[in-house]
Amino acid sequence: MTNPNNATITTVHRAEFTASDALKIPTLRILKDDGSLYAEAEAPTLDKATALKMYDTMVFIRVLDERMLAAQRQGRISFYMQCLGEEATTIGSAAALTDLDMIMAQYREQGALRYRGFTLEQFMNQLFSNEKDLGKGRQMPVHYGSNAINYMTISSPLGTQIPQASGYAYAQKLRGLEAVTICYFGEGAASEGDFHAGLNMAAVHKAPVIFFCRNNGYAISTPANEQFVGDGIACRAVGYGMKSIRVDGADILAVFKATQMAREYALKHNEPVLIESMAYRLGAHSSSDDPSGYRSKEEEALWRKNDPIARYKAWLLQKGWLDEAADKAQTEQLRIDILDALKVAEKVAKPGIEHLISDVYAEPIPALQQQLDELKQHIRKYPDAYPITAGRLD
């Protein structure tokens, strides 16, 4: 007899619930806190150049985050978001991809962007929304994007990239490309309807997409135990009929290994995979947030001991691939370079107002042109309210 329900039918004759904790997903960990490998661990194959590029990217992002949060506090930029404590999550996963794979980020994946080749100058131009910004000043700070390196422009509304990733990956399959899409989001975004629609779409249509959930414990101020009662996010993938794996998000080797496996499986079988990274957001949600209102300093201090950079650095030192003195000198030089780039970018002029409508369409449509003309008239009428723009209208 055929089964139109598409479900396993195992007949029983006594009523019994399936327990809510019937599925428990283990967490992959390869590196110990001291940087040594667990005896039974299967470390990924990493050459020295790739390993050091991963480390250099982690240090770059850590220093950039420190400097730019300070710049926001000084009033030099309007907004900033750090990925403090999650550097291994985004950089380890990005390193396991190829440059042809599409990255669809949420807003804390600047590590993946840097690993792909986004320059210091490009970071600064975006953060200051100047005329050299690839987005022409039309986005908030940290809403990066780069067509050249296959990094989809970030959108503020949570979860929108999840169904988009399913559709993009499905198109990759139809075109016969040897490429996948990776889609990053937090455990808070997994409460959005887009999460469920996106996963189901990818599973049904067998799209080669890697859904990468950064479970960092808090959706802004809401702790995970107030968001859901299931066993994290990874177990939800099983409900949609897809493979899943959970990793220690502070262990860059575990993240790299899991993403390698997920990419290989997604391409071979044309199916989606969900990775859940268990890390901790050491910083505030954003420069607009004060985490002291919803978590203790003792909690933060406890998790600060689980620093992903320190753990990975210890591994590199044990392998003899990193020199302590050279690393310290390089970090100090990086601080100088970032500050110098900041000083340059903040003096670059803002984009012309005409860029509000340029390249939205091949040619601005009449309605957009009319709106721009009306905006210019308004600014000319009230020039004191728009000091930067008013001086550049003519």
Helix/strand/pairing category: alpha/beta
Overall mean confidence score, pLDDT: 95
Helical percentage:
40-55%
> Order of strands in the sheet with the most strands?
1-8-9-5-4-2-3
> Assembly type of the shown chains?
single chain
* H/E element sequence: EHHEHHEHEHEEEHEHEHHHHH
- Beta content: 5-15%
Give the terminus-to-terminus CA distance.
77 Å
Bulk shape: globular
Describe the structure.
The protein is of the alpha/beta class and 394 residues long. Helices cover 41% and strands 9% of the residues. It has a 7-stranded parallel β-sheet with strand order 1-8-9-5-4-2-3, sandwiched between helices. The N and C termini lie far apart (77 Å). 38% of the residues are buried.
Features:
single chain, alpha/beta, 394 residues, two-stranded antiparallel sheet, 7-stranded parallel β-sheet, 41% helix, 13 helices, 9% strand
